Amino acid sequence: MLMKSLKIAIVGATGLVGQKILQILDERNFPISQLIPVASSKSLGKSITFKNSKINIVSVEHAISLAPDIAIFSAGGSTSLEYAQKFADKGTFVVDNSSAWRMDKTKKLVIPEINASEITEFDKIIANPNCSTIQMLMILYPLHKKYGIKRLIISTYQSVTGTGVKAVKQLENERNNVKSEKAYKYQIDKNCIPHCDDFTENGYTKEEMKLVNETHKILNDYSVKISATAVRVPVVGGHSESVNVEFQEQFNINDVKTILANTKGVILYDDITNFIYPMPIISENKDEVFVGRIRKDLSNENAINLWIVADNLRKGAATNAIQIAEYLNKKFF
Q1: Could you count the other beta carbons within 10 Å of the beta carbon of residue 204?
Q2: Among the options 62, 131, 144, 192, which is catalytic?
Q3: Is 131 among the catalytic positions?
């Protein structure tokens, strides 16, 4: 189905994810009649470059007045809560990359390969899931359909790019022995910090609870038992996850590999004889989710271990949002 040229606003166009959104819109040749880059007041008067043209950055209020067809938000939850509905009131479809709307019962939480078909013309605000949730469910969804997932034990190893520009600069400065402002409480170079996002009352971080709550919502199955630990590591290329999956049904390991090898958007990268397994350096700048180190859990006959890696700025954020926008374009314009 052909896509039409649309008026597109990017709210948070100067951030790490915002810049990646612009790059991927160009790469995927998304048809745009007018691009509206939006950033904070300190960026007004500046410009961004898109398809070799300089485009002036505008205020969010001005962008709303232009009534874009689609607005892709990547400017933080407070900005989304304040302005997303104002865009929606103008008839704009909002694709929001923050956590603001993900658990709102009235909003769809969408990974296009899994549940884009649930979007209706009345869903003006659509939530983009958390990066670690997206890459995990790209692997787990086809397996859940086949075998039914009973329990998940998740450990994530997350890139500093998931925190933002300040964290990337902290890592670079620490590696160059330069004192600077810190994004983290502790040194991240040569270190692992078992603390992603704020702690909650139950002792888990918000990042860990996102893996629990978003998985339940996207799978529409609240019976799956989930426990997660999220760790920040001194990596730039992407997020990694070690996932132990207990199924309700018995499985054949070769069938699991066949299912994943035939899943769109997934690359089976699993050949230990030749030392082939996913790593962030392999996933960087790619849209696919890589899975390997697939093996039976020797302590549980109905369980399996997986190693999952993806570029968190692409499929974990920008690409997923643009895929939602592509679906909207084809379906409703």
Answers
A1: 18
A2: 131
A3: yes
Identify whether the C-beta of residue 278 lies closer than 8 Å to the C-beta of residue 306: no
> pLDDT for 148-205, tens place per residue?
999 999 999 999 999 999 999 999 999 999 999 999 999 999 999 999 999 999 999 9
Q: Taking residues 41-49, what's their average pLDDT?
A: 90
What percentage of the chain carries pLDDT values higher than 90?
97
Say which residue, 42 or 224, is predicted with more confidence: 224
Give Cα separations from 37 to 68, 111, 201, 265, 332 (angstroms): 11, 24, 38, 28, 23
Confidence bin at 115 (pLDDT 50/70/90): very high
Q: Which residues neighbour 15 within 8 Å (Cβ) at sequence distance 6 or greater?
A: 74, 75, 164, 165
Contacts of range 115-119, beta carbons closer than 8 Å, 24 or more positions apart: 115/218, 116/323, 116/324, 116/327, 119/324, 119/327, 119/328, 119/331
* CB within 8 Å of 117: residues ≥ 6 apart: none
Give per-residue pLDDT as tens, 263-279: 999 999 999 999 999 99
Catalytic status, residue 239: yes
1 has pLDDT over 80? no
Domains and CATH numbers, the chain: 6-129+317-332 (3.40.50.720), 132-312 (3.30.360.10)
Query: Model confidence at 294, in pLDDT bands (50, 70, 90)?
Result: very high
Residue type, 81: L
Mean model confidence pLDDT for the chain: 97
Please count the CA atoms within 13 angstroms of the CA of 181 that sit on its side-chain side. 4
Give me the catalytic one of 144, 195, 196, 239. Answer: 239
Q: Do 122 and 332 touch, CB atoms closer than 8 A?
A: no
Strand-by-strand arrangement of the 108-109 sheet = 32-38, 6-11, 70-73, 93-96, 125-127, 108-109
